[in-house]
Amino acid sequence: MKKVELSNILRKFTFRGFLLGFIVALLVFLFNLNSNVFMQSNRTFADMLILFPGMWIVIVLPFITTAVGYYFALKFIKIIRKQRKSLKFESRRSERVLKFVNNLREGNLNNTELVTDKRDQLSRSLLKLHDYLVKSKKEQEQNRIEEEQRTWVTQGLAQFGEILRRNNDNLEELAFNIISYQVNYLKINQGGFYLLNKNAKGDKFFELTSCIAFDRKKFADKVIQWEEGLIGRCALEKDTIYLTDVPNDYITITSGLGETNPSAILIVPLKANDEVYGVIELASFKEFQPFEIEFVEKTAESIASTISAVQINIQTTKLLHETQIQAERMSQQEEELRQNLEEMQATQEESDRRAVEMKGILEAIDNSAISCEFGVDGSLISVNQLFLETFKYLPEEIEGQNLKIFTFQEDADDLNKVLSDLQNGKNFKGRVRRRTKLGEEIFLLTTYTPVIDNYGDIVKILSLENDVTDQVRMEEQMQRSKDELGIMLEQARDEMKEQFKEIEAVKIRNEKTLEGALDAIITTNKEGILEFFNAAAEKLWGYERSEVLGQHVSMLFSTETAKNDLFVKAYVNTEEQKVVGERKEVPIKNKFGDDIAVLFLLSEAQVGEDQSFTAFIQNVEVELF
């Protein structure tokens, strides 16, 4: 209903309620007018209210019935609005259900805008139907994708098997064809094939045998050590490594537009019968799908088996070739052996001759040097006659003894350190202090040499020593003389310091004397730099001494005077001969630019290479006055 109709209902019910109350009140009033009691009264309205108190209720009855009518009208309107809202909701729900059913019929399963509640069985059933259709569609799509992936893997394995069959005698060509096929078939950016090799020492390492669009700066030599980086980890764990969070400095993909990091790295070990033969590393801007990883892992098994077979073939061919070469060599060696036997006979004769010479050399050393042999722990094995004479022992007294009996207690740590170095195969050469049987101190120039057998073990220590005790005593005497000379030089330096102090005191007294002189006195060095400027000179020129000390003396004369006056010219120029000992009248120029005539007397002083000139100046005008 419209709002106007609802208002009319409200007015009608209200008016009818008022009309009902009014009619009832009017009938009661008319009935009371005909009553005997009212007829016996004065027949006024006030008498009626007094005689019939209930008339008060009759008077307000129209208002009560009006209010009741209004109340029931509101109730009725509320019912109407509720029914109207329910009808509107049902209409919208029907439209949504119809639209939902049409979408399901047309296959549009993305529309799920359907209001439902616990009591709406139809909507819930339709939503269940929608969920079933969506699930069925996803399963069909997933089955289709899985079927495509299986077909893709099957076709790839078939093509890959053909590649492995074509290359079975050249590992580098096989590696290039493998990595090229995988990069193209997977539609990725780059890949590398690492083959496991061994060096001469038997250490394992991975060599980048082949690559596609590969630029790894930190592996420019194309070699990765065993267990190094992700390649080594993949081989060690014998499991696939898949990274989607690639470090910035690990690997880059280079194109004509620049360099950037890949989004995913796939590293797969090439293993067969639990033995690793290499590693494949693939990089791409897109992430690898599980079926792609499965494809690479399956091809890795075939690659490992093929590499094993190729390596066996190569090794067999190599062994066959080496066998042929060895057969030829054995024939040559048989002839060489016959010749060597003849040469060995001649060598044996030469060896016997050298043994005789060596025996003579050893006897000469034994007669000229103190020698002994001892074990690595310092226990004596044998000594020569000079050793016994030097240390004043009898042969039976040192039998089974240790070197420590010839060492002072304070030198024991030094001996232990030398023995420790000898045990490590190091030689020792130096001067040592030793003790004789009588407790005398001797000094030896010693050489200890370990004797090593064919197995690298130290069997004994050979010692050759010379007695340098007299030389040491002479050095000590020279050192004492040197110390005494040092003391004498120190005393001489002290005396020189005192003399310099006296000279400095005299210099200070002289400077104070010159400072108090009435005549102007200035001193320059041989370069013409002012070094002294007394108070009278300050008064004469008008300069403070801080303004002139360190400056050239030419600043005290005008340019014309320094150029034309021969006395001043020689005085201010370093290279010219100064006029010394003659009083000259020359003009000077004060601070204010005035020329002043003065009497100039120049004296010279020289100490060693230091040369100075002192000038005594008198103001002519003052003297004349």
TrEMBL record:
UniProtKB keywords: Coiled coil, Membrane, Transmembrane, Transmembrane helix
Residues covered by the PAC domain: 426-480
Domain PAS as annotated: residue spans: 506-591
Keyword Membrane annotated: yes
Segments forming a coiled coil: 320-354, 475-509
Transmembrane segments: 12-31, 51-74
Name used for this protein in its record: PAS domain S-box protein
Organism in which the protein naturally occurs: Plebeiibacterium sediminum
Phylogenetic classification of the source organism: Bacteria, Pseudomonadati, Bacteroidota, Bacteroidia, Marinilabiliales
